[in-house]
Structures are given as structure tokens and as C-alpha cells.
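Honest question from a wet-lab person: if I give you the sequences of every part of a complex, can you actually get the arrangement of the whole thing, not just the pieces? Trying it with mine:
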Amino acid sequence: MKIAIYPGSFDPITNGHLDILNRACKVFDKVIVLVAHNNNKKSNFSAEERVEMIKEATQDNPQVEVYSDSGLTVEFAKKHHATHLIRGLRAVSDFEYEFQLASANEYIDPSIDMVFFMSRGDKTFISSSAILEMHKSGVDVSSLVPISVTKRLK
Ligand code: COA
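Yes, you can. This is the full assembly:
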């Protein structure tokens, strides 16, 4: 069984993330979404809330599992017998950051490889913070996030 981890802060999960996840499910038998800690970010939703929103959004997909963890992503991957980490790339600006993250992960454990999916054209502008900013300014973001997120934004 081919298992991959899709790590991120998912604060909150967006339709951009879900698109990457659904495409990863066509390549791997099981994809574990990992709500991970990014020390450089202050979170808007608690880890429990983020896990709940993702679970609700993926409840019809038996290939998906959702966890949160505060340790290293590659350690989590090994514990769950995953061979790959999934990340999405939206624009050239994502590349530098992803390259650095991939290199750090490779240094920690070169046996875990990375797989990147390019965001669909209509989803490249979506980010969790843009969603929250638009919502706070009264913009309807319901077509950019799953219902589980829209519900909690209200
Ligand atoms: N669609 C929509 N938005 C997307 C996206 C997509 N396909 N791909 C990325 N994004 C957005 C996210 O919404 C997020 O937006 P924000 O900055 O407004 O919140 C941003 O791009 C990047 O966030 P995300 O993909 O969640 O990654 P991250 O940088 O927050 O998370 C971790 C990085 C959590 C995976 C990484 O820090 C990690 O693995 N931490 C655990 C500790 C560890 O192992 N560190 C590595 C060794 S140092």
C-alpha cells in the first residue's frame, strides 16, 4: 500500500488544498492530511478545529485520514509507514520556500521523498490568510472553501 502525507497548517483548509488532496489520492492508496506546526505562524483556528474542518470536508473519501502533530513531519511519516510527502505549488514564489523545506526534510531523512502538484489555474490565488482577510472585509468566500469552513467562519 502506497501511503503519502499531505502536511500543512491548513488554517483553514481551502478548495485549493482539497484539489491537491484529490489529485494525490489518484496516485497514492492512502493520503494522511497532517495539521502540522509552523513555528513562524500564529494560528487562527486551533489544531482540533482544523482537523475537524478537514475531516468533515473529506468524510466521503475513504482514502483520506486526518491527524495533527507537533513534531517533525518526516518522523510522523515514518511512524505511519508513508514514503512520500505531498505539497502544492501555486506560483514561482512558492518554489524557493518549498525547495528549502524539501532540503531540510531530505537532511532529516532522505528515505522520505516529496511529490509536488501544480495548483490549477483558477486556484493559484487562494491562500488561508487571503480567505480570512476577504471574509473579514465582508467578501463571500464560500466558493473558495468547503462548507465545513464556511460554517465556522459564520
Ligand atoms: N491551495 C491554497 N492555498 C495553498 C495551497 C493550495 N494548493 N498551497 C499552499 N497554500 C497556502 C496555504 O493556505 C498557506 O497560506 P497562508 O500562509 O496564508 O496560511 C501557505 O500557502 C503555505 O501554507 P501551508 O501549505 O499550510 O504550509 P506551511 O508553510 O504553513 O506549513 C509545514 C509548513 C507545516 C508543512 C512545515 O512547517 C512542517 O512540516 N512543520 C513541521 C515541522 C517540520 O517537520 N519542519 C520541517 C523541517 S525544518
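Two things worth pointing out. Strands lie at 3-8, 30-36, 64-69, 84-89, 113-118. The first helix runs from residue 15 to 24.
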